[in-house]
């Protein structure tokens, strides 16, 4: 496989690296999923636990993935094969490729909704509608068998087209301008949302932790979402890390991406929850939360028409830069391990994922009554991939980093493009060797009901 080395694409600048990695991290996870699950799991306490996971587990695992990727210059599977020859570690990569298939299947559906909402915004379709009507229109749309499927396919087509062209030319160019613009729009929405009458209740919901509302499943979802939002646990950042040049300071990159991703999620929360309370929408309304809440805000804003169009365009772009990074995991694996041509690998993966996506989309309507453990196909893929596969991948990656790869090689890789002090390195080692694996294992066991943490508490 080493013959392929010289042909590998790489990011051309430091900014390109940040743009691509942040482009992967920032997406529907921040703007659609974070507010919706924060609503379902009770608000402030969920946010608090989520932030703890980001810091103690997400950041170290992001750095680990970047190290593994850049050191090996391989895809998610090949990386472990190269760094740990003749061992079972490489199966982490298979787990990642499987997660990529599952995630992109449902991700494309939500991104399709976002495209539909661009059209709705363009014709000013939210004007003079009541919160109730907005919600009914949304439900009718996602349950219909044609439109959402068509938009999902359109989104997958765009994703595949960009990946075929290659990662650098495809991504770097667009994210540079569009991501900052998205942040500006969200901040304007924040200001509007906070100024609505009755908005304080929303801020309180988001920032005032009520730990009595926290359940084992809530904690598991906070962990799963930390992985999902930062694009961790399935080799996305191993794959992107493999395109990063040696003079890049990986620690800084990891910190910047983590901070940007977290800030954008919290800003999205500030745009949503005050409006949720101001318009009397249920915070736990589920996957439709953003699509129902924001149109209400737009129609109350001066210039709301323009803002709504811009917002859904940018949301679609943010979804696109994430979807590309998910598809790239599969394509890099197919091309480097199965010797497929980039073009065919992309076509094959895109078609297969689109097909799963159609089933996801239909599971909201036509197949609504087919459920597994009370989850429809869409929720099932979301739940299993985000809450089980990604944390499991993260657990194995942290064990690999801490116990197999080891301190010396980590230091060497990090010092190629920067400097890492001994104390900081020790903290990192402690986190990847002990904190991350133990915490993930406990949350997984507890959240899935295999272990009850109350067994370890003093009896009341
Ligand atoms: N992080 C992306 C988002 O927040 C989704 C994603 C998950 C991307 C896993 C890559 C890998 O929308």
Could you walk me through the main structural features you see in this protein, from its secondary elements to its overall organization?
The structure is a single chain. The chain contains 18 helices and no strands. It has 460 residues and is an all-alpha fold. The chain has one domain: Amino acid/polyamine transporter I (Up-down Bundle). Phenylalanine (PHE) binds next to helix 1, helix 2, helix 10 and helix 14.
Short account of what is shown:
By secondary structure, the protein is mostly helical. It has one domain (2-455): Amino acid/polyamine transporter I (Up-down Bundle). The chain is 74% helix and 0% strand.
Count of individual domains: 1
Strand residues, percent: under 5%
Q: How does the major sheet shape up?
A: none
In this entry the ligands are:
phenylalanine
Distance between the termini: 60 Å
Report the strand count.
Answer: 0
CATH architecture: Up-down Bundle
By CATH, the topology is: Amino acid/polyamine transporter I
Helical segment count: 18
| Large-scale geometry | globular
CATH class: Mainly Alpha
Mean pLDDT: 92
Give the SSE string: HHHHHHHHHHHHHHHHHH
For this entry, give a set of tags.
460 residues; mainly alpha; Amino acid/polyamine transporter I; globular; disordered N terminus; binds phenylalanine
Write the layout of secondary structure elements.
Elements (H helix, E strand, L loop, with lengths): L13 H12 L2 H13 L3 H29 L3 H8 L7 H32 L8 H13 L3 H19 L1 H29 L4 H8 L8 H14 L6 H6 L8 H29 L10 H10 L5 H34 L4 H21 L14 H29 L1 H8 L7 H26 L13
Helix pairs in contact: 1-8, 1-12, 1-14, 2-10, 2-12, 3-4, 3-9, 3-10, 3-12, 3-16, 3-18, 4-5, 5-7, 5-14, 5-15, 5-16, 6-13, 7-8, 7-14, 7-15, 8-12, 8-14, 9-12, 10-16, 10-18, 12-13, 13-14, 14-15, 15-16, 16-18
The chain binds phenylalanine (PHE).
The site of phenylalanine (PHE) has 15 residues, from α1, α2, α10 and α14.
């Amino acid at each position: 496989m080493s013959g392929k080395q010289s042909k590998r694409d790489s990011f051309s600048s430091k900014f390109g690296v940040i743009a691509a990695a942040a482009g992967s991290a920032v997406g529907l996870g921040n703007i659609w999923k974070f507010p919706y699950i924060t609503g379902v799991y009770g608000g402030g306490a969920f946010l608090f636990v989520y932030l703890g996971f980001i810091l103690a587990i997400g950041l170290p695992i992001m750095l680990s993935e970047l190290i593994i990727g850049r050191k090996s210059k391989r895809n998610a599977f090949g990386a472990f094969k190269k760094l740990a020859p003749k061992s079972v570690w490489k199966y982490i990569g298979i787990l990642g490729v499987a997660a990529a298939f599952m995630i992109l299947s449902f991700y494309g559906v939500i991104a399709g909704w976002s495209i539909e909402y661009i059209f709705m915004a363009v014709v000013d379709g939210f004007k003079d509608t009541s919160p109730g009507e907005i919600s009914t229109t949304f439900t009718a749309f996602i349950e219909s068998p044609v439109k959402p499927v068509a938009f999902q396919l359109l989104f997958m087509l765009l994703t595949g087209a960009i990946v075929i062209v290659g990662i650098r030319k495809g991504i770097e160019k667009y994210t540079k301008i569009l991501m900052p613009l998205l942040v500006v729009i969200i901040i304007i929405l924040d200001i509007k949302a906070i100024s609505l009458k009755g908005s304080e209740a929303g801020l309180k919901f988001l920032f005032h932790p009520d730990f009595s509302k926290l359940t084992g499943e809530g904690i598991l979802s906070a962990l799963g979402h930390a992985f999902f939002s930062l694009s961790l646990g399935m080799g996305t950042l191993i794959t992107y890390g493999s395109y990063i040049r040696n003079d890049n300071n990986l620690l800084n990159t990891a910190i910047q991406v983590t901070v940007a991703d977290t800030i954008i999620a919290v800003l999205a929360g500030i745009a949503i929850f005050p409006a949720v309370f101001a318009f009397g929408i249920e915070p736990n309304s589920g996957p439709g939360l953003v699509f129902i809440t924001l149109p209400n805000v737009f129609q109350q804003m001066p210039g709301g028409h323009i803002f709504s169009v811009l917002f859904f365009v940018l949301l679609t772009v943010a979804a696109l830069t994430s979807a590309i990074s998910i598809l790239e995991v599969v394509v890099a694996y197919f091309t480097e391990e199965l010797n497929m041509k980039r073009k065919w690998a992309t076509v094959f993966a895109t078609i297969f994922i689109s097909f799963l996506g159609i089933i996801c989309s239909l599971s909201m309507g036509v197949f609504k009554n087919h459920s597994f453990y009370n989850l429809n196909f869409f929720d099932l893929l979301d739940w299993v991939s985000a809450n089980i596969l990604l944390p499991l991948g993260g657990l194995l990656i942290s064990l690999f980093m801490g116990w197999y790869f080891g301190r010396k090689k980590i230091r060497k890789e990090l010092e190629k493009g920067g400097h890492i002090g001994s104390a900081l390195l020790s903290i990192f080692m402690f986190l990847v060797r002990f904190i991350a694996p133990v915490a993930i294992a406990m949350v997984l066991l507890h959240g899935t009901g295999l272990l009850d943490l109350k067994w370890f508490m003093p009896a009341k």
